[in-house]
Amino acid sequence: MRFSRILCLGVMAFLVLLGGCAERQPTSPGATQPPEAAPGTPTAVRASEGQFPDRVHVAWEAAAGASWYTVQRSLSTSGPFEPIGMTKNTTWDDTAAQPGQSYSYRVTSSRSPATNAAQSVPSHSALGYAGGRAPTEAATLVSPSGLRVSEATFPDRVRVSWNAAPDAAWYNVYRSGSATGSFINVAGTRGTTWDDTNVAPGSLYYYRVSSSRSPASNAAQSPQSESASGQAGSMPTAKSTGSPASPTGLLASDGTVRRSIHVTWSAVPGASWYNVYRATAASGPFKKVATTRATSWDDTSIESGPLYYYALSSATSAADNAPESPRSAPEAGYAGWQ
To answer: Which of 3, 101, 169, 242 is exposed most, by the fewest CB atoms within 10 A?
Structure first.
């Protein structure tokens, strides 16, 4: 009996030792390992703009958990991007850059240089070029479209937004106190929205936007977009919920104004605002090109020579959803060459 008990205890002890060994077995080479997490994304990527005659110097801020960085390059901000080098540092010199050619750079980070190492999300792109002169790229830059300006939506600012332009990495915002006045550069931004907080509530402002590949002051820019107006503060209270009468006395200059068309009309009782519509044919389609409190407007965003058609409507508010009168009969005009 005692022998049987001893044998049983021995077997149990052996099994416990065997189980412990099994738990301490090293992972076999073929076992599946959990995927390695990617490190953070590099920030503040910047590229030299003509400071070096034979290279583009790219630099960035270190990313959390990163040991290696891959520099990617493209001829366009929209890609495709190709890797051109790896480094443990936070700088890279692109000595293969052609002087006078603009390049777009971005950077990813990883924990090792292995080709299958987990890569971070690519950084934002930065434009740079080698050589002393900025590339002349204005001909390929497109003006931003879809310019929108808030109409008393905010009490203390005017929000300006637009659609992204192809190959643009920077936008310059221009402002004027009138549709025909001088437009001054008031801001630059990488985004497609900008808030103008330097405004007086109730005052009307006109905006235009141009696109660029770089924030450099000497960088090539696209032509400025068509203007759009807006204001901060509360909208004037309409005297009625109905719309006023259609404008009358519409006239458009016939080549008497150099590179613009002067459009005038008679004031409408009860109207505070006028919407100007333009088309290249009398039958339309007509597109709204301006909103103004005045009874005249100069169209400077047209070509000299071709015939343009204008129609007017009146409203008690500049809001997009404000009731407006039926449009007036169209009137044709053209811009002069001299």
So the answer is: 3
- Per the domain annotation, does 36 fall within a domain? no
Please report whether residue 4 resides in a domain: no
Number of domains in the chain: 3
- What the block records as the tokens of 132 is 């002393």
Statement to judge: residues 96 and 128 lie in one domain: yes
Same domain, 131 and 174: no
- Determine the Cα–Cα distance for residues 99 and 101; give it in Å rounded to an integer: 6
Pairing of strands 228-231, 254-258: unpaired
72-108 tens-digit pLDDT: 998 777 778 899 999 999 999 999 988 777 788 999 9
pLDDT in tens, 251-300: 999 888 888 999 999 988 888 889 999 999 887 888 999 999 999 999 99
pLDDT one-digit tens code per residue, 289-335: 999 999 999 999 998 888 999 999 998 877 766 788 888 888 999 98
Point out the domain boundary residue: 96, 111, 135.
Answer: 135
Give CA–CA dist 262/256, Å, rounded: 9
d(CA 111, CA 126): 23
Tokens at 137, concatenated: 């790229």
